[in-house]
Amino acid sequence: MSRLQTLLLAQVVAALCAHADVSVSTPKPKKVLDTIMEPKFIPPEEKIGLHWKRSAINTIRSKLQVTINENKAKNGILFIGDGMSVATIMAARTYGGQLAQGIGEENILEFEKFPITGLARTYCIDAQVPDSACTATSYLTGVKTKYGVIGLDGNVTRGSCYSQLYEKNWAPSIGHWALEHGLDVGLVTTTRVTHASPAGMYAHSSERNWESDADVPDECLAMGCEDIAHQLVFNEPGRRFKIILGGGRQEFLPNVTGSTGRRLDGVDLIEKWQKDKVERNVSYAYVNDKSELMKVYNSDELPEYLLGLFHDDHMAYHLKSSSNQPTLEEMVEIAIKMLSKSTKGYFLFVEGGRIDHAHHDSLAHLALDETVEYSKAVKKAKEMTNEEDTLIVVSSDHAHTMTVAGYPSRGNDILGLVDTTNGDDGIPYTTISYANGKAPSIGADGKRVDVSLHQMFTSRNPDYSYPSLVPLDSETHGGEDVAVFASGPWQHLFTSSYEQNVIPHLMAYAMCIGDEQHANCKSSGTNIQSSILYISIFSIVITIGLYYN
Ligand SMILES: *[C@@H]1O[C@H](CO)[C@@H](O)[C@H](O)[C@H]1NC(C)=O
Ligand SMILES: *[C@@H]1O[C@H](CO)[C@@H](O)[C@H](O)[C@H]1NC(C)=O
Ligand SMILES: *[C@@H]1O[C@H](CO)[C@@H](O)[C@H](O)[C@H]1NC(C)=O
Ligand SMILES: [Zn+2]
Questions:
Q1: What is the rounded distance in angstroms from the CA atom of residue 61 to the CA atom of residue 122?
Q2: Which of 6, 42, 399, 465 has the fewest CB atoms nearer than 10 Å to its CB?
Q3: Strand 496-499 to strand 116-121: parallel, antiparallel, or no bridges (unpaired)?
């Protein structure tokens, strides 16, 4: 090789290396804010290869312990984290770990311990990126429909009263199926109980916003279209729900002086709900706050029916709530305590509904905190139930535009600035940001805003809105798939990638309340009984085999 060739080769290699450096390695050194070559927070054991091999082998061993559970699921619990994208799960896990004084990334949310994970596609039949109404219809009734529509199939026009009244368009929910099979049913949410997600359990509304009669156009009321709160109290299946806990009192009370009620028909639906229980000679309780709820919880004899409305509007964010507002975990605890009395089993729907609201206001801190609260509620449900007879599914209705980006070092504050680099404009940036939302990343001067100069950011005020690329009054949903976590009978069916509307059908299959039935639906469904059956068949086969030999 000539000198020139050698020189050229060296140049090519150098160019390749430089290229590899840009595409593979992370921070650009010249932009380093604070040169941390070795992050502060690497646990010493993580530097040893053997640690990772051992932990992987432990994972293999624990996977090998998982056996196929084809029992009949006596009980089913569906948890939905509204707007809980996969990015939200990762960020909340890290936030939860850092709250507990850990490094963060290693933390595991409760549902991440479930043995089975799948992915659900969330689009509506007329929208690439869905809302909570069409998705609630999907994961609760098993039917995909149009944006903004609840409990009706796609043969409706949003806001058309005529198509709402046409009963063949109605899509009954898994809550309804469960009631028809003699199970008890409950719903728990942190939003108004008339909001889109919980409404999917009981309402048929061509417009998600028709929460009280004040929202329904007069011509629709004249045609006989009922608002969502009215449907919950008077109609099937809502009037037969044993547990209804959440916010939204304003949709149930008349708009009279001194009241926060919004109803214009003058009807007090809370009173009507109680009257219905009196007429049916069943025991009941209505509660307004946490102390009343705890009184019911501690009473010697639990009522058969419980209605709890803890706020006029949505319940307050956990970080901003009064001490007299129950947590999601507390609501789930009393719901399971009451529903567990059912000999035939139960279906419970639980929504962590305010993850979504926090994201819409780009309030990442609150969104992550609500997700941690949601995880605590899942933990409580797991502790109070047995995976031999209770199927728990944890998912989300749709994603959001929040991302976790940059190359922050290990253990860096998930709500803080990326600690390794600034932007190419020399201005620092947050690990968390939104594709769109109310806090534009470009200021009036045309320059990117420097959040480190915002006192609300530096003081960790939970009301601080994280920056976004496209200015929009309300940050939007995201269109990517959501994760599904399952534990309990038939959990293995929840693996792979599928349409969101499959979820209630899978749950109904496990619970023997759908069209498809498995072998254990006939027996009481325990493995012991099916094993005896298999052993008997096996013995007969062996006997016949021996005979013919
Ligand atoms: C669709 O709904 C309309 C009412 O809006 C009804 O007249 C029509 O029969 C429905 N079509 C089907 C296929 O059910
Ligand atoms: C009650 O009705 C009045 C008059 O229609 C309206 O101005 C007010 O906003 C209503 N209150 C609520 C809480 O909706
Ligand atoms: C109402 O229920 C109670 C106990 O559940 C029972 O003793 C009573 O006879 C019932 N009354 C009517 C009118 O059905
Ligand atoms: Zn939303």
A1: 34
A2: 6
A3: parallel
Q: pLDDT digit string (tens) for 405-433?
A: 999 999 999 999 999 999 999 999 999 99
55 is in an annotated binding site: no
Domain ranges of the chain: 1-30, 78-401+485-517, 407-475, 525-549
**Is a pLDDT exceeding 60 seen at residue 542?**
no
Nearest to 78, CA basis, from 516, 373, 479, 510? 510
Q: With a 6 A CB cut-off, is 438 part of the ligand 2 pocket?
A: no
Alpha-carbon torsion angle 200, 204, 208, 209, nearest 10? -130
Q: Report the distance separating Cα 451 and Cα 441, nearest Å.
A: 9
Residue 360, annotated ligand binder? Answer: yes
Instruction: Average the pLDDT over 186-205 and give the result.
Output: 98
pLDDT band of 41, cuts 50, 70, 90 = confident
Residues 6+ apart with CB under 8 A from 479: 122, 123, 128, 129, 130, 398, 399
Give dist(CA 379, CA 329) in Å, integer: 8
Please indicate whether residue 255, judged by its CB atom, sits closer than 6 Å to ligand 2: yes
**What's the CA dihedral at 64, 70, 74, 80 to 10 degrees?**
60
Tell me the average pLDDT across 454-474: 97
Q: In this structure, how many other beta carbons lie within 10 angstroms of the beta carbon of residue 157?
A: 15
Mean pLDDT to the nearest integer, 132-142: 98
Q: What Å distances lie between residue 174 and 331, 349, 507, CA to CA? A: 21, 10, 9
What is the per-residue DSSP string for 331-363?
Answer: HHHHHHHHHTT-SS-EEEEEEETHHHHHHHTT-
Amino acid at 330: E
Task: Judge whether 213 is annotated as a binding position.
Answer: no
Q: Tell me the CATH class for 78-401+485-517.
A: alpha beta
How far is it, in rounded angstroms, from Cα 188 to Cα 168?
28
User: Pick the residue with more confidence: 240 or 36?
Assistant: 240
| Residue 40: Cβ-neighbour burial (10 angstroms; 0-12, 13-18, 19+) | exposed
Ligand number with the minimum distance to the CA of 278: 3
Q: Does residue 132 carry a catalytic annotation?
A: yes
Instruction: Give the model's confidence band at 40: pLDDT under 50 very low, under 70 low, under 90 confident, else very high.
Output: confident
Helix (H, G, I), strand (E, B) or coil at 54: helix
Ligand 4 centroid–CA 213 distance in Å is 22
Among candidate residues 197, 170, 232, 535, the one with its CA nearest the CA of residue 352: 197
Tell me which ligand sits closest to the C-alpha of residue 163. 1
CB 147 within 8 Å of CB 126: yes
What DSSP designation does 32 have? B
The catalytically annotated residue of 25, 62, 132, 160 is: 132
154 CA to centre of own chain: 24
Question: Does 386 contact ligand 1 (Cβ within 6 A)?
Answer: no
**Atom 10, ligand 1: which residue's CA is nearest?**
155
Mean pLDDT over each residue of the chain, to the nearest integer: 91
State residue 524's pLDDT score. 55
